[in-house]
Structures are given as C-alpha cells and as structure tokens.
Amino acid sequence: MNILIVIKIGGSLIKSARKLVSAIYEYALNEGERILIVPGGGMFADTVRIASNTYRISDEATHWMAVLAMDQYAHYLSDGTPARLITEIDSIPIGASILLTYNLLKRSDAEIEHTWDATSDTIAGWIASKIGAAFIKATDVDGIFRDGMLLHEIAAKELIKMGGTCVDPELPKLLLLKSLDCLVVNGKDPNYVIDAIRGVRGGTVIRHGSSTEIRSPVRTLIFPKCDSTRP
C-alpha cells in the first residue's frame, strides 16, 4: 500500500540514527511505502543555541542557523545509508528519503514561529500537514509521561497545559491548527519505529481532538485512510 509518512528523527538518536534510517529504508522499499525523514537538529542545533546565547544573535538569524543545523544532521543521516537526500516535497519516491529543509522553508515558512519554542518537531509537523502525510516523531524516550506514567494518548490541548515534555512547545498548537495527529515513539530500537509504521500499539499518540474520543487502533489514528488491520 503506497502511503505517505513523515518521520522526524531526533538528534537525541544520533548514535543509532543511521541504523534506524537503513531499517526504515529497507522496510519502505519492501512494502512500497513512501517515507520522508525530517532530521532534528541535535548537537548541531545545540552549537547554534550556545552561539546565540554567547553572542546575542537575533531570533531571526538563530532560526535560520538552526534550520541549517537540521541540514547538517540530514547529511550525517544519509552518510553510509541507502536513503537519498531530497530538497523538494512535490513528489516523494517509494522508499525512504531524507529532506534538506533550508531552501524549502526559505520559500515559505510563514506559519512557523522563529523562536526556540518552534524547533524541528514543529517544522516536521508543518511539512507533514503540507503534503498530507501521517506524522511520527522518533526520539530517545518511550513517549510522553505524566507523573511518571507513560500516556498512550493525549489531546494536543492537554499537552499545551502540561508544559515541558519531549516535544517542542509549538508542536501541539500546530497539530490543533492543522488537524494533525502525531505518534511519539522510541527510536532507539528500529523495530519500535517499524511497528509504529505498521500500526502496532506503542508510544504516545498526540491527538488534535479530544483524547477521550480515542478508541481506534494506532494505524487508524495516524493513517486515517488506511486499513488498521493490515499486518
């Protein structure tokens, strides 16, 4: 089934990220699915943050420096993996591709705040909404926790009230604006991400609607046009 998925790979996964990219690519190619990987900023964006704090760089300049940091991570992710770098989102090929985001955002990112509250999470969500894709965030934790307990699902409105979590503060606002859901999953083991693509329950679903309305399997939530019973 040829569906479109955006997977944001966080900088926190840098030690195992290329193994994850290779696994995603092989799965997508074998299953005939189209997966667009949006890189985080990781240590590259951390360097920008340090420079910004040290030398009092404006939010506008810092934003674009951080976006360029995402492109640096993209080159790292593609190095030694079969996934190729792409710069356009008009036609995503079967398999897994890694997006270089800078030029795309320079042309049109009016809906994204140029602050540290809107990082690669929000950018990846914006890209997913722009191309009508399902959205998965792969990070180094199992999902979103509240009072030490993993939440299997949460409404974006509730997430805004929680404050600091493993997603950036602007992401839940974007999910509400774009009527988009997001699945947060642990990417340390590639099998967890592959299971998430298949629709196996895991991680935390951030729902743009009320979490009390969630009764369906994960694949129905993040792939609303797909058959959730597909193995």
Overall description:
There is one protein chain. With 231 residues, this protein is of the alpha/beta class. The protein has one domain: 3-Layer(aba) Sandwich (Carbamate kinase). It is built from nine helices and ten strands. The strands form two sheets. An eight-stranded mixed β-sheet has the order 3-4-2-1-5-9-10-8, with helices on both faces. Strand 6 and strand 7 form a beta hairpin. Residues 212-218 and 224-231 have low confidence and may be disordered.
Strand-helix topology:
Elements: E1 4-9, H1 17-31, E2 34-39, H2 42-55, H3 59-78, E3 84-86, E4 95-99, H4 102-107, H5 120-131, E5 134-139, E6 145-146, E7 149-150, E8 153-155, H6 156-162, H7 171-178, E9 182-186, H8 190-198, E10 204-207, H9 218-222
Parallel strand pairs: 1-2, 1-5, 2-4, 3-4, 5-9, 8-10
Antiparallel strand pairs: 6-7, 9-10
Helix pairs in contact: 1-8, 2-3, 5-7, 6-7
